[in-house]
Amino acid sequence: MSVDRALEGVGGALDDRFRGAKGFRTLFRKIFPDHWTFLLGEIALYSFIILLLTGTFLTFWFQPSMTEVVYHGSFTHLDGVRMSEAYASTLNISFDVRGGLLMRQIHHWAADLFVAAILAHMLRIFFTGAYRKPREVNWLLGLAMLTLAMLEGLFGYSLPDDLLSGAGLRITEGVMQSVPLVGTYLAFFLFGGAYPGSQIIPRMYIIHVLLIPGILLALITAHLFIMFHQKHTQMPGKGRTEKNVVGAPLYPYFMAKTGAFFFFTFAAVALAATFAQINPIWLYGPYNPVAISAGSQPDFYMGFLEGALRMMPPWEWNVAGHTFSFNVFIPAFVPLGLIFTAAALWPFLEQWITGDKREHHINDRPRNAATRTALGMGAIAFYGVLWLEGANDVVADHLDIPLYTTTRIAQVAIFVLPVVAYIVTKRICLGLQRKDLHLLEHGVETGIIRQLPSGEFIEETRPVTEEARAVLESRPEPLSLPPAESDVPAPAMRGATGRLRERLNEVVNESVPLTESDGYGGHGNGHGNGHAAEVGHGAEAEHAAVPAAGEREAGHGDEGGGGGYSATGSVTDQGDGQSGS
Amino acid sequence: MSDTDARGGLPEDRDYPAGQGGPGWAGQPTGEEQAGPHRVIGTPAPATARTLLGTGQGDGGPQPPPELPAEPADPGKAKKAERIVATCFIISMLAGIGFIAAYIGLEVHSVDAVLRSNLALGTSMAVAFLGLGVGATIWVRHLMPEVELTEARKPMASTPADREAFEETFNEGADASGFKRPLVRRTLIAATLPIALAPLVLLRDMGPLPGTSLRYTVWRKGTRLITYGSNTPLRPEDFGTPGGMITVIPEGYQDDYDALAKAATIIIKFRPGELQPPTVMNWTVDGIVAYSKICTHVGCPVALYEQTTHHILCPCHQSTFDAPRGAQVIFGPAARPLPQLPITTNAAGFLVAQSDYTEPVGPSFWERG
Fold first, then answer.
1. CB-based contacts of A50: which residues, under 8 Å, 6+ apart?
2. Residue in A257, A263, A306 to test binding to B, most B beta-carbons within 10 Å
3. Which of A134, B141, B171, B233 has its CA 20 to 30 A from that of A127?
4. In chain A, which residues have their Cβ closer than 8 Å to the Cβ of B207?
5. For residue B6, is it within any domain?
6. Are residues B136 and B223 in the same domain?
7. What is the mean pLDDT of residues B29-41?
8. What is the CA radius of gyration of chain B?
9. The domain containing residue B79 runs over which residues?
10. Same domain, A281 and A267
11. What is the pLDDT of residue A277?
């Protein structure tokens, strides 16, 4: 067989030199668990690869220079207009390089997808608790990469030196100046003097094409290596434990799947770049500090900063000859700092509050960590308000709301909505926990109504499948903090911090008790067992309108006094609840 | 304990409970009676699901059956899938050829041509990738037999013995290195500090120090106001009726963006009596008032003017300034009014500046005070 010969020949020659047979064999059989949300990180990775490929293409023609030229290219509308070489070369890429426009648009769409995928991936990690020990370091690396990705995007879309991105740069400069003590110096050093100067484009260019991508590449490598080394988390399910990884091997399954996914990602971005125009810089015109266009919006990932700037009240202090521009400094740095600091500290804070220092490899279902999920939704609401306010002129225009009203609403919503989101999410999670418990204890309602000999109507239920049961039972019992020793609190629980920890612990661990509470207690066990006996019948006779006699009645006889709960009144109910099966 | 260790002895470390395979694999030899470790793949019946740990899989032991079956569950379905996969790959190939053809055949150099080229290149590229993606996915799903393997996971922490051994090695090395000699250690640290600081020092020439440059613009006494765009000087009589807002720049600085970034100015003509304090009346000519166009928030040009309300609006963050009343802030995040430029007319009747702005224009900065 030729494949065998090739393997022996090439593989043998390589193995003679690198001794890879054993290592690669193990590698090929490495197990990768499967879940659709595990693809979010892959989207980010593949977007990054697409960015590297298309970005390299663009550098062949792009001139990162602010030297003024007079344009005489193919885009005749701007013929004779003075512009920077950066802008002119971007026009050149768009109109005179074959595939240039496509590559530019793929690059821009891939950048948006990159940040969006990172955000979605991060939310998945947060809501499933996948950041918990031993993966805290990877969580922090992820946060670092998100920060860099946003900065990389800002610098990237500023490079063409068009009117829209120039406004963004001007804002960046104003924001830098608001930093107390060193702000003016920071701005002058970045811009090489007064704004706009002639240095900012070449400087951003080298940061954009070398510095940040280099750091990102190193961080991605570390991120992936750590993931690989620690093995991926898995979703709860039958046969999945904290001590195993269930899934398909790298070779050939994961390789083929992930390869296919790379092509899907590339295809999606290519489709967007073909049919959805993005950043048409020739319509904006070259940058000029005197002009601006209305409706200026940054790329979506900078929108929340824009919103923060818009909704901030005009607070400014002048103290001893110095200016504190709270109206700029606070919105530019506080929301960002709040979100990132909270995200970075949370894994460690949670460990301290719960006392849970165990390793976790089975992901939580979000409902089972009600407080964490609620906090996450609160953060999303906070971010969402900022983000929407960043487009408040568009919102006002489309919804026909007065512009100032949108800002006033946002100024209130930024405080209220996160709290509302927290409370509502927590209630929903606890409700879902109750529903899960109910399913475990009473089984799935089949929608089949039967009449008992006594004349009473009753709905049949059947126990959940083993697979579903494994998922439903995946909620771990929370750890308890060090207990008090006969009225004296444990050393870790003393003092104000100890009391705070205890209180936080109650909040974080708030959940529906796993064991049956008095709510269902009276008829619990007998009821469950009775239904367990019905498995086969329920499945066979899902649509039977008239209950069969005989053995099935005997099954119900076992049920004891459980009738009270599951009787559902009328036969017309039978159509409902089928979805549970 | 490293990952490699955990996976080193492959058969020993792993157990393979039944997966959710197709019915075709139910017949795979699964009995416990079989000697040695074995794999159970794609066995649907829960009754046969069990965890099987291999025992003593030595070199000389009997060969285990393969972990991955070589054939998919349903050969008939697989045949069909194979044809679909091949079709996808052929479509992808054709699209790839189409991409090259479009590159060679379609010119650019005009808006319409670029749009045609973009459509052809982009579509063929997307189809080429989609073909590969769809084909490969169907391949994995329907041509490869379904498997679910289980790999053991060990705690991340090393065993105490390994940790102890490491500690020993580390300390041995530290002792051997002589790093505990205080003189060597301290001088080494002392030597690295200035070197660590040097890169920061090197950045000093990134830009000049701001000095007082943010306090001043290029407006001087007698500088003519010329309209932005057409670069023509203005006389008060040129304003027929009160109304719109005009952007003006200092004459001689049309192409100096560094100057314009601070000096851009707007002028608005009001009816008599409309201008109110705190507008400085001495700085106006004939109801014409000049304000800085650079927003005091973060520096966007305040380019929107609502004639009916006389509101100047910054399109970036919607700071709103009351034009007849000294451009005071009436809404939005800007903290200060737009500075007013003192203007007058020169001997020839053209609008000129009386002086530079009397306060710094644009966004606040630390030294502004």
1. A106, A107, A110, A265, A266, A269
2. A263
3. B141
4. 188-193, 197, 199
5. no
6. no
7. 42
8. 40
9. 75-143
10. yes
11. 93
Give the residue among A377, A391, A376 at the shortest CA–CA distance from A305. A391
First to last CA, chain B: 60
* Predicted confidence (pLDDT) per residue in A420-430, tens digit: 999 999 999 99
Model confidence at B51: pLDDT above 80: no
B63 pLDDT exceeds 60?
yes
Nearest Cα to A131, choosing from A45, A223, A35, A215?
A: A223
Give the side-chain half-sphere CA count within 13 A for A339.
27
The dihedral over CA atoms of A355, A359, A363, A367, expressed in degrees to the nearest 10, equals -10
Q: Per the domain annotation, does A215 fall within a domain?
A: yes
The CA distance from B333 to B345, in Å, is 34
Beta bridge partners of A444: A462
- Interface predicted TM-score (ipTM) of this complex, two decimals: 0.83
> Smallest CA–CA separation between B185 and chain A, in Å?
30
What is the CA B328 to chain-centroid distance, rounded? 36
Residue B23: per-residue pLDDT: 37
Same domain membership, residue A157 and residue A109: yes
The pLDDT of residue A459 is 86
Task: For Cα atoms A561, A564, A569, give the angle at the middle one, nearest 5 degrees.
Answer: 135
Query: What is the domain extent for residue A574?
Result: 443-475+522-580
Based on the fold, state whether residues A77 and A201 are members of the same structural domain.
Answer: yes
The identity of residue A140, as a single letter, is L
Is B304 close to A311, i.e. CB distance below 8 A? no
β-bridge partners, B289:
B268
CATH of residue A317's domain is 1.20.810.10
Question: In the numeric block, which tokens belong to residue A23?
Answer: 């290592």
Q: Are residues A148 and A277 in the same domain?
A: yes
A225: pLDDT strictly greater than 60 = yes
Distance between CA atoms of residues B71 and A186, nearest Å? 64
Rounded Cα distance between A207 and A64, Å, is 12
Are A87 and A203 members of one domain? Answer: yes
Residue of chain A nearest B313, judged by CA positions: A294
Is B315 in contact with A294 (Cβ distance < 8 A)?
yes
Q: Where residue B244 sits, what CATH number does that domain have?
A: 2.102.10.10
| CA separation for the pair B24, B145 (Å, rounded) | 10
- Residue whose token pair is 């909620």: A475
Beta carbons within 8 Å of A85's beta carbon, 6+ residues apart: A63, A65, A66, A67, A68, A69
Residue A562 pLDDT more than 90? no
Q: Across the interface, do B316 and A403 touch by the CB < 8 Å criterion?
A: no
pLDDT over threshold 80, residue B252 = yes
- On chain A, the residues whose CB falls within 8 A of the CB of B333 are 309-314, 327-328, 331
Quick one: A156 and A226 in the same domain? yes
Instruction: Give dist(CA A451, CA A570) in Å, integer.
Output: 10
Answer whether B19's CB lies under 8 Å from B68's CB: no
| Residue with token string 């007082």 | B212
Question: How many whole angstroms separate alpha carbon B366 and alpha carbon B360?
Answer: 12
Q: Find residue A139's DSSP bridge partners.
A: none
CB B153 to CB A26 under 8 A? no
Q: Taking the CA atoms of chain A, what radius of gyration do you get in angstroms? A: 30
Asked if the structure places residue A493 within a domain, the reply is no
Tell whether B274 is covered by a domain: yes
Helix (H, G, I), strand (E, B) or coil at A522: coil
| A416 part of a folded domain | no
Amino acid in position B114: V
Distance from CA of A406 to the nearest CA of B (A): 11
The residues, any chain, with a CB within 8 Å of residue B281's CB and separated by 6 or more, are: B275
CA pair distance A285, A294, nearest whole angstrom: 13
pLDDT in tens, A73-117: 899 999 999 999 999 999 999 999 999 999 999 999 999 999 999
